[in-house]
Amino acid sequence: DRLCGYSNSVLLKDSLMQQNHEQFDKSKVLTLLSSAEQVVRLSREYFPVGEPIPKSGAALQASGEAIFVDDIPSPINCLYGAFVYSTKPLVRIRSVEIKSKSLPGVSAFLSYKDIPEAGQNIGSRTKFGPEPLFADELTHCAGQPIAFVVADTQKIANRAADLAVVDYDVGNLEPPILSVEEAVGRSSFFEVPSFLYPKSVGDISKGMNEADHKILSAEVKLGSQYYFYMETQTALAVPDEDNCLVVYSSIQCPEYAHATIARCLGIPEHNVRVITRRVGGGFGGKAIKAMPVATACALAAYKLCRPVRIYVNRKTDMVMAGGRHPMKIEYNVGFKSNGKITALQLNILIDAGQYPDVSPNIPAYMIGALKKYDWGALHFDIKVCRTNLPSRTAMRAPGEVQGSFIAEAVIEHVASTLSMEVDFVRSINLHTHNSLNLFYESSAGELEEYTIPLIWDRLAVSSSFNQRTEVIKEFNRSNLWRKKGISRVPIVYDVPLMSTPGKVSILSDGSVVVEVGGIELGQGLWTKVKQMAAFALSSIQCGGMGDLLETVRVIQADTLSVIQGGLTAGSTKSEASCQAVRNCCKILVERLTPLRERLQAQMGSVKWETLIQQAYLQSVSLSASSLYLPDFTSMKYLNYGAAVSEVEINLLTGETTIVQSDIIYDCGQSLNPAVDLGQIEGSFVQGIGFFMLEEYPTNSDGLVVSEGTWTYKIPTLDTIPKQFNVEILNSGHHKKRVLSSKASGEPPLLLAVSVHCATRAAIREARKQLLSWSQLDQSDLTFDLEVPATVQVVKELCGPDSVEKYLQWRMAESKRACHQRDGLVHS
C-alpha cells in the first residue's frame, strides 16, 4: 500500500501561490523543487504498533508551543553564562585579563580554581576517561574552555566572554600535534581495548597471491562534519533546598550528566536531579559534548546560589563541538580480472582530538560498515591518534559512514583500473549468506533475514536502473556542458541493542503515564513508546479500550525517577525503550487480570475505567518498572538497504543537481512507518551534506574557521533530490528483535554515498570528453573525488579550462575539415 504519493508544494515562485486553488495557473509554474513517493506495507498484527501515526508532539513543535530548555521561563534572579575558550593549542595560560569586569551586569568569572575543594575539574566522562571542565595552567587545544562568564543577560555574558583577553606562553613546550601524520611521528595514540578492536578476516597473503591485479598504496582522506542541530547546546541549573540542584539539560544522556555534575561539585548524586523533556536535534552532538555545558551551569548556580542558564551561540558551539572523526586511509587491494576482489589491506589513522571521548569505539564501527562487501580476505591496522584538537565525538553513524565510503572508494578504483562498469563490480562482490556469516559472525542471522539480494534486484526494477543507465549514456553523448551519472550502492549496518529502563503508571481515571530511558530527539521515540504501551495494555481485554492510545502520555526523563537511562544513540534506543515499556505493561496486566476476571464474572463485561477504579479501591499496585536487558545471543543484528541516485553536473559552474534518488530500506516490521520514513529521508539528506557540501576546516592553530552559515553549508530545499522515492521493505518476523522491528535512524545516512558515486560517474564522462578534445588517451580515467564534492571540487575536476579546450578542439576540427575540403578540390 502507498502511504503517501505526493508532490512537494514548495514552489520556486511564491508569487504564483494563490489562495483560491481553482484559480491557480499551473502552466506558469517553472518547476517543483521536489516531488516524492513513499511506499510501505502496513501490518495490523500488533495494532496500534505498526500504524503510521503522526509523530507525538508534532503539532506542538510546528506551532512553537513545544517547550525546550530555553523556553522554560527564567526563575527569579536568574543569571546567564558564556564560555571563554582558548584560541591556541598546547600553550601555557599566563593570565586572563577580564575586561568584562568593566561591563555592567557581569556577576562572576569562573575557572578551574572555582571548583569546590571536594569536587573535581571534570566536564564530561566516558568509560575511556574524563575530560576537564576547564583548562588549568595549560590549554591543550584551541576551543578548550578556559572560563565561564556569568552575567545578568545572555547578551552581556556573550559580550563579556568576547572581551576576555588571554595571555599565552609557549615557552618550554613541545609543538602541538595538529595532524594524524604528526601523531604517528610522535607515537601519540589512544589505546583501543582488545575486546573492542575488530577482527581481521581470512588470510591476506593468500588473497593477494590469488589476485590477477593489485592496487598498492592508494590513499583516501575524509574530513569532519558539524551537527548543525537547530537548538544549540543549552542548560538551566536551579539551586534547591538542602544543597541540591535541579538541572534542565538538552542532552542525549541525562544519567551521565547527573554523575558528572555530582563529581564536579563534590556532592552525592542524590543531591542532583537532571531533567530532559526533549532535545532540539542531537545527532550525537548532544551526548558527551552537552555534559560540560550542564556542568558549567551547575557549578555557577552552586557557587552563586542563584539560577544560571546558557544558550550557547552558534559560533561557540561550532568551535567547541569537535564533530565527526577525520581520517586518513591507505589501502592495498588485490582482485581478479572479472572484478572479484580477493584481498583488502588497510592502514587507517583516526583523528580523535585531545581526549578519548568515544573514539576507541570508532574502529569497530568503521570496519562493521566496511565489511558490506565480500573482500575475500580483510586485514587492517587502525590507530586512534591523539592530537591537539578538540576531542571528536559521535556524529550520526560514527565510523560507519567512513567505513562504507572507503568500501565504495575501493570498488570504484578497481572498476576504473579494469575499465569495467562499477555496478558490475559491486554486484560481483556482494555477500552470499555464507560469506556474510564469515564476516559478521553472530550478527548475520538466518538466511531468510539476509535481504540484500532481494533489495538489490528489486531496486534495479523499481528505479528502472538499467533503462536509465542507457538514457544517461545518450544524454552524455548529446550534451557538451552538462553530464549525468547514476549509481547503485548497498549498505550493511551492524547495530547493538542496549539495556534501557521503563516505568508505566496507570492513574485513577485510566490514563497512563510512561517514563523511559530513551530521550526524544525528534526521532519519534515517544510516538513508538505510546503505541507499544497501548498495544501491550490492550491484552487485558476490557471494553472501551479502542482509544487507549489517546490515554497514554510519555513524560520527560528525570534521573531521580528512572535511573540507568544510559545513552540515546546507536539507532536502537527507541525499540529498546518500547520493549522496556512492554515488559512493564506485562507486569501490570498480570496484576490486573485476576481482578478483571472477577469483575467479568460479576458484571458480564467490564470497561477499562471501571477496572482501574476497582484496582485503586482494592489497592492493586498500578505502577511497574522494568530494565530491559537484550538477550546476549541477539544483542546485535544487521540492517540492509540500497539506493540509486542520479545526478546532473554543470561543467561550467561545477554545480551538482540530484535528479532522482530511490531507496529501499529493510525496517523489519516497522513500529511506525511514518516515523521511519522521516528518519530514512532525513538521514539520507544529512548524508548528502557530508558527501557533497559540508566543510569544517580549521586554521593553522586548529581553531575552527567555519563558524556559521556564511561559511558552513548544510543541505537546503534545493539539495533534496528532485524526485525522492523511498520504499520500506517489510522483511517478516524475527522473534529475537522487538516485535521484529529494525533501526532506521542512522543506517540510511550511508546510502547518500550513492550521490557522491553518481557525481564521480558524471565527472568521469566530463573528463573523458576533455581528453578527447585534447586527443589524449581515455583508457585511464582514475581520479580522486574529495569528500565533500563541493562545487569548487567538481569544477576543478571537470577542467577549469574546459571552454578553452573545447574552442581549441573546434578550431582544430575546422582546420582539419578545411584541409580535407581543399584536398578534395585540388584532386
UniProtKB/TrEMBL annotation:
It is an enzyme of class 1 (oxidoreductase). The keyword Oxidoreductase applies. InterPro entries: Ald_Oxase/Xan_DH_a/b, Ald_Oxase/Xan_DH_a/b_sf, Ald_Oxase/xanthine_DH-like, AldOxase/xan_DH_MoCoBD1, AldOxase/xan_DH_MoCoBD2, AldOxase/xan_DH_Mopterin-bd_sf. Keywords: Molybdenum, Oxidoreductase. The keyword Transcription regulation does not apply. Residues 63-172 form the Aldehyde oxidase/xanthine dehydrogenase a/b hammerhead domain. Pfam families: Ald_Xan_dh_C, MoCoBD_1, MoCoBD_2. One of its GO terms (molecular function) is iron ion binding. Its EC number is 1.2.3.7. Belongs to the xanthine dehydrogenase family. PANTHER family: ALDEHYDE OXIDASE 1-RELATED (PTHR11908:SF132), XANTHINE DEHYDROGENASE (PTHR11908). This is indole-3-acetaldehyde oxidase.
